[in-house]
Predict the structure.
Amino acid sequence: MKYLIKFYIIIIPLLFFSANSTANEKIKIGLVIPLSGENKELGESILNSVRLAINDINDNKIIIIPKDNQNNPNKTLEVSRELYNEGIKIIIGPIFKKNTSKLNLLNNDLIFLSFTNKIDNSEKNVLNAGVNSVSQFNAIKKFQNLNDIKRSYLFAPNTDIINEIKTGIKKSKIKLKDKFFYDPDPTLITKQIEDVTRYRIRKQNLEDEINRIKKSDDVNKEKEISRLEKLDTIGGINFDSVIIADFEETLKSVATSLIYTDIPPNRVTYITLNQWFDQSLLNENMIQPIYFPSVNYENYKEYLNKYKNNYQNNSNQIAFLSYDLTGLVYYLLFKNNFIVDSEIFYKENSFKGKIGIFEINKNIITHQLNFYSIQNGKIKKIF
């Protein structure tokens, strides 16, 4: 039995599962996603990915029943109730946090695996399965320990993600030297970074030191002045790394502002959050090396290629998650002899999917993530 479970966990097609299943009864799994409106394309990619996973599992007892929630909380409640009335007890979806807001009106034995990465969850029958900040800070903490990083300064935008960041810090118990929450307005970022890093003070320290040496009787002062004039600042900084909890252009703006204030990546370690292997970062040589936690890159590339070969279209991160969630549901059902019971999501469990290892405990899902660097225009796995 352990042999079968090990092979399923990495989602290799198992031809013998259909023959050795413990019951012939079909098991229906709901899928609540937008199949119309502006998020139709996203919903269709998830549906395709789920079908890809079902095909790889190769057990015809599992049937996926998709429903269009139109990215609307009321419609989500309506179609979920329809699925429950059809005897369905497990639903993959919805995608967005707003659409979980009314699901606690349904019976507690109906379980949802939502794609959202929000940590705090008031709906007890919803498991948020996205790659959350706790998982990411746990990976960063491991990287800190491996590299003797002891004084990390967190930089994060003062936006709607601030509570997720704070909760992730608290639950991961990551140690930080300090935190700074900035206004993400691009016209204000550099000034804020200057202030928090004491840039003007350090720059003035340099000017004062050069003037002092010029007035001194030191016979080697010309040589020392020449050395100092090549610097931008002098004076220590009290951190050995920065964690920039931001993305895309704002991440780049914060990083380049740090470089401008004489804190380049060869002086302190640049760390950020899961960037989903943003290819534009490969061209940002000035901010490299930069380190980040993420899903398994090789598996992600393999999945993207497989999806494109099957559907002649590109996939995305959320659809990638849906592939694993399908595998997770099957794995838990398999361990429970295909008895559909919401309790399987409340027991302590782990599952090795394409993303990485899912850890389930008391209806909370976290992930053991890998860690990567971008350096010299290339992505490199750290662990």
About this structure: The CA atoms of residues 78 and 181 lie 40 Å apart. Residues 1-22 have pLDDT under 50 and may be disordered. The radius of gyration is 25 Å. Residues 317-335 form the longest helix (19 residues).
